[in-house]
Amino acid sequence: MGLFGIYGLFGPAWASKNESKALRAIEKLTDQTKIARAAREAYLDDARIAAAEKLTDKELAQKMFANIAENRFSDANLRAAEKLTDKILAQKMFTNIAKEAWNFNYRLKAAEKMTDKALAQKMFADIAVNLVREYYTYAYNNVINNLTDQRFLADVAMNAKLDEICKMAVEKLTNQKLLADIAINSKNGEVRKLAFEKITDQGTLADIAINAKESSMLNTAIEKLTNQSMLAFVVKNSENWEVCKAAVEKLTDQGTLAFFAINAKESKIRKIAIEKLTDQNMLVSVAKHAEDQEECKAAVEKLTDQSILADIAKNTRSIYTKVEVARKLKDKNLAQIICDEIVEYLIINDKSHDLFFDILKIAPNVIKSHWGSITYWANDHGHTDSPITHRDNYSCWHTDETQNKHDDRGLGQKFLDRFPPRVKN
Hints:
mainly alpha
């Protein structure tokens, strides 16, 4: 049996481990010397507090309260700190208890008494993150109620050991960027979902549409986006084709659509943007600058003004656009002039191009007028015995490694193979 056990059996009643017995004994004490001894030596801290309260020497009483308050394992440390009249000392004790007490309920109650509110917020967050058992009922039910700092709430939402505490923290969050971070990065799926549901800010939704990992969240973010600038931001910055597609399909601003019709990295995105364009001036701009034949065709097909089409043919550098304009022009003489320019350009610049087949359908006489150049082009292309200097301007199919033997399968030859009767007759 330890010293306190013997002391409790054979010593004064105030030294008993039985709380009721110890408190009754202290209540009967009148001698200040005995009261002081009980305040110093009682086994139970509640008994020590009761004795200190009866001391007429208030300075000694305060020392006893401070001594008890310093014990982080004591169940009475908070009550002792509350008895301190020195406010600075009392705050020091409350802070220590909030940091170090073993009981989360005591920690929270001490933090609630702190006058340094910024530090108190830090204490609340630490308690919330580390709370591991729901039976600390007071702490469980009240810790989130005490938190108001959005940064600390976000930290709790991300890191708390109890899922319900994480969710309670999210419920109190209003900062959209912090909610977005949780929605994207939390390891808890339910917490991510809860955070995402609270996001309404268009810029934040755009960030999620670009950075979220879950496809359902990406899609919902796009669904919630209405701001044209933010939708454009997503199209510019997302590397996910499906996200870009969904965003560009929600665009209605004609200037923005024209920008993507010309500048989007993905051809599929450019085509969708062209399909949504209705503004004739914007379509003209796309038709003049597009470099893909299908995109040129899509833009030109939506243009109806013949004078605008003629102007495009004169001013665009795109041979694809020229062909599509020629195809749509009602003025067949002008269409033939345009086709003639295209064929001359292809021949002069050694361009092997399937556009010859389009031109044949639009203006067959142009092909006839250039027949000599086309047949020469097919059968008399230059090459040397050196593989290094061999000019593959006509996509030859080589039959040996030296590249000396080859079949002529350039565009001109291909054209001869497919259309000799039509053109020669």
